# Entry
Amino acid sequence: MDHKPAQLDLGRLIDRPDGDFSHDGVQQLRQDFTRFMMRYKFGMEEIVTKLSILRDEFEHLHETNPIENISSRLKNPDSILEKMGRKECDSTFESIAEKITDVAGVRVTCSFVSDVYHVFDLLTSQSDVVIVEVRDYITDPKPNGYRSLHALIEVPVYLSDGEVPVLVEVQLRTIAMDFWASLEHKIHYKYREDVPQSLLDGLKDAADTATELDATMERLHAEVKTAGQLSAGLKDELSRGTVALPDDAFVERLKRLGS
# Structure
């Protein structure tokens, strides 16, 4: 009788009840896989904690908070299997760790583009955070219009058997970028790889609109901050139009801010 183990279904391995295993090797694989994924889970939680501390500090001690929302996700086994096939990844934990860099992901949503870079600087300036790679799709968007700042960072996780460096992908984007990315994902999920060209064109137009919105909101935000630094008397004069400035449009905006 051939006692060679059958091809393991890694995608459902950790979901099977204990009694569903026919040999010790599969049980050991399940334990090893759980240990492997827990490292990523702890690394992801470490990043979330760092960002949550920053968000809470800004919430209570500063006038504005650059962080709107923090979310995280751990790739499920089926997604890992699918990406292993696309990356031509060997069926070893070492190969998975080397070739699949987004097993653990954290997403940060900010109000303004300047906030994205500010939060990135605050996070990556911490002494135990190592920047492995940065892909700036805000400065250089993807052809389809996707915009976001991707940072692959490494943090130490301390386990019972010692310190383990863990890679976590952090995506930072504005609310407008996040809304666009969510819609784009839903469309591609529905149509798989056969998205109608009209929808692709519409998505690109929407990406351009979102970029314009971000630029407009950034400009208004800067104007509000500047207006807040003016003296009460000067703001009153500006609102009544008694101070002449070369840029009439700017005066009108200040009038609206001071009303």
About this structure: Residues 1-9, 14-21 have pLDDT under 50 and may be disordered. The longest helix spans residues 24-61.
